[in-house]
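Private note to self, pasted from the team thread so I don't lose it. Backbone tokens:
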């Protein structure tokens, strides 16, 4: 069995999509959802899904080994960043080398790096009058959004595109592809 840890910071829509996808996949188990914000709605989603949800706030996450210990105590095989807005410490990256997946709301290497997440990305893409954007699912390394890209999907922008309409398109791509790419990556790498 492949044991997954989902890390999230906000609403948790990706956590819910991933959990629902893996319900009928007995070779996978979502062992824990780790959240870094006490008020994150993902905590309620995790509870509704019957998933263990562990709160490790930013300071503790970054300055102690609490997260690494939690992962090791649960025999986690893969970590999935599902809207996690905190840099993963190098101790975790080294321990889980080539076993941490992230989804980015743009076609990397464009619009990646520190501060490029969520609406920041969509505003930049629309502001630069790009004709396409998309998602990139990649392995995590020590540099923001620089890990090996495993999958990309594209959507096209219209002349009337707004950051909000682009966000809707990106969420649709995430919902369609992220869970199945996670499964594929975990089984192949």
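Design output:
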């Amino acid at each position: 069995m492949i044991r997954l840890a989902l890390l999230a910071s906000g609403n948790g829509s990706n956590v819910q999509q991933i959990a629902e996808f893996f319900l009928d996949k007995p070779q996978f188990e979502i062992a824990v959802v780790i959240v870094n914000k006490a008020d994150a709605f993902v905590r309620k989603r995790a509870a509704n899904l019957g998933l263990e949800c562990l709160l490790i706030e930013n300071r503790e996450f970054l300055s102690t080994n609490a997260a690494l210990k939690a992962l090791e105590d649960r025999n986690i095989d893969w970590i999935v960043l599902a809207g996690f807005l905190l840099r993963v410490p190098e101790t975790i990256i080294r321990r889980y080398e080539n076993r941490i997946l992230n989804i980015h709301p743009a076609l990397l290497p464009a619009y990646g790096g520190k501060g490029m997440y969520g609406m920041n990305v969509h505003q930049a893409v629309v502001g630069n009058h790009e004709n396409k954007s998309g998602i990139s699912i990649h392995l995590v390394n020590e540099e923001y959004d620089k890990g090996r890209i495993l999958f990309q999907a594209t959507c096209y922008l219209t002349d009337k595109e707004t950051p909000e309409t682009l966000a809707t398109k990106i969420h649709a791509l995430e919902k369609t592809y992220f869970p199945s790419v996670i499964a594929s990556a975990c089984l192949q790498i």
